[in-house]
Amino acid sequence: MKNRLKVLRAERDWSQADLAARLEVSRQTVNALETGKYDPSLPLAFKIARLFEQSIEAIFQDEA
Amino acid sequence: MSMLKLDGSRKRMTGLAMILVFGLAGGIGFLKGAQMTGAEDSPVPLAVLLALLVIALTAALRLSWKWWASVDEGVRSAHMNGWYHGGSIATMVALVVALALFAGPQTVTFPLTGAGELFGLGVLFCFAMQFVGYVVGWAVWWARASR
Fold this sequence. Notes:
- Chain A: Keywords: DNA-binding.
- Chain A: Pfam families: HTH_3.
- Chain A: GO terms for molecular function: DNA binding.
- The complex is a heterodimer.
- Chain A contains five helices and two strands.
- By secondary structure, chain A is mainly α.
- In chain A, helix 2 packs across helix 3.
- The N and C termini of chain A lie close together (8 Å).
- The mean pLDDT of chain A is 94.
- Chain B is flat and about 50 Å long.
- Chain B is built from four helices and no strands.
- Chain B is mainly α.
């Protein structure tokens, strides 16, 4: 699954560690999310959407 | 992988039930192992050994439970990958190696004194293989996720 996490993070000038702290996950997990190799759980996806004030579909795009 | 959401009291009951089941399984395994390896004749009473084992298992399970609750979902996913894929593949490899050693002509001999030691060696071999598989599976998950 593709996502715009890296772009959204860069727009706010946040480091991966900053985003990790805001989401209460590890920096490694943020990195795994940004590479698109790991899809977040629904609760984490909602948390991300709330943090960036966007809908889940605006952040995550299904590649199928 | 989905996780069931349980409320506080159900969570505690499930945790307690799991500790009891694992403790019972550990105890049965211990007694069977003691019968096979001859540990029944050990100078330390079997009941004391069993009590120590139950305490150690319960403490390990409680600590694991607390640690698991404290880590995020990426870390959990990496460990689940290590456990499921790494452990399964390593078990299959261990099975193939064991079959190769015992099904064919007996070219390998072990300096063992009885069936108990051979059983112990088999358990240790499987455990070691699964542990290696677990670590490899865990490392592969992080390597793939970081690229």
